[in-house]
């Protein structure tokens, strides 16, 4: 069959067919040699006795040459040529084999630059097709003089063309299988990511910390980099964090987060766009240069372009109550990673939903914690102003739970001039423990006020009262009576299962007042509890505290007290508020409440 009667048509629609181009991409045959197709080209050159034999693959804008024999060196090394020089593109347009004895007489081919640049005079090309019939390329031969192609040569080309097509189909099938495997792995990875994110978001009630971790987990697994932004109900942008999978970009992402936080208009505009879209907003071809016209500062666009801004996916962070959009998760890819698909879109939507739930929980927890802290502090007394005695107290709730608990402190002046000091801990750190704590503290005050009993009998009476009034309380406590005697102080104390008092002497040495342990209050009532006595010199500082200051799951109480001793030693003149701050700074993890009472004697 001759090409002379073929009508010239625009090859664009056929060449740019999305299904055909998808098959070409799956081949992965670019501007490089392929051993299998080079062998076929060599076989064709010898069997047909043609100076040039080619296996071509036609992309949208160029022709690749994975197999070739006989091309001049520049093209032989480049393994590609522009479509202007391609004779095979006419095979693609025709969808069938073309055999031309002299292209100079062909109305369509005669103006092709290949005639002059490559000396292509005679041409024969067989279409190479995929399983759906799309022409992906050709098996072609060229001669540098007019030639009548024989029937046996044409039949040989057709047969070898079928072999080439079978190889292409096999490679496409293998790539489709690999794609299915990658999609399955991606789906598994995304499910794993969602599980890890849920655990991360529920591990802390600090929403800024949670959203920062969210971005770090998403970057690299779902996108090259991402932006997480959160707005308050008032519309104020409350949080912006940026994360990139490459740690080398950490300075740039930190700078971008600061710039975005200082330019809330862009964040609000993105949130509004997502709201209007009623779901994720996806752009497969993002132009980084367009950012310069939309950003209030050019540095934002500059950093985004440097990080890679070829495609993006913006998903709403949606609060479950009222389905309000409270923030946005923006995933961004550079050119190398490719565009986002439906799987990533679904995962991003689910991440936004779970992040919105975490935001709602955090805000609810914050309101409850604030109420609880106000309640707790309202139940703790104001310390009296006593000449010669400086009192300083601190209370810190546990970082988990309801932010209230059973830890307490107290100090009050007796009619005889002595001072009662107490620190205790009712088991638990919740509302019930706080309510019980208030009752226990009031029982201590009511029972001890106006009486000159020593601390041991007072705690024994408190024990009897807890049982007699059927109060479900188990508590530790240290109760101390302090009297001025001459130039110093007579100090008596009783300890019901509580950490020992610690004294910082004027010379900077530290005493830990260990005594034989006695049971907690509220277990089995005791008729007698011990009273211990110490003489304390002016300039000393007494420390009463609860076990949250010295205990943790990974540490014994002895280790915690050794840590306190190290902080106290040599600091007898340190102001009491600074001393408190130093003691509390040694606690790295607050699994329990802390009550701390510091008494400086002058």
UniProtKB/TrEMBL annotation:
It comes from the Bacteria. InterPro entries: Bact_Sigma-Reg, GAF, GAF-like_dom_sf, PPM-type-like_dom_sf, PPM-type_phosphatase-like_dom. SMART domains: GAF, PP2C_SIG. Residues 32-178, 206-369 form the GAF domain. Transmembrane segments: none annotated. Keywords: Hydrolase. One of its GO terms (molecular function) is phosphatase activity. This is Uncharacterized protein. It comes from Paractinoplanes toevensis. The lineage of its organism: Bacteria, Bacillati, Actinomycetota, Actinomycetes, Micromonosporales.
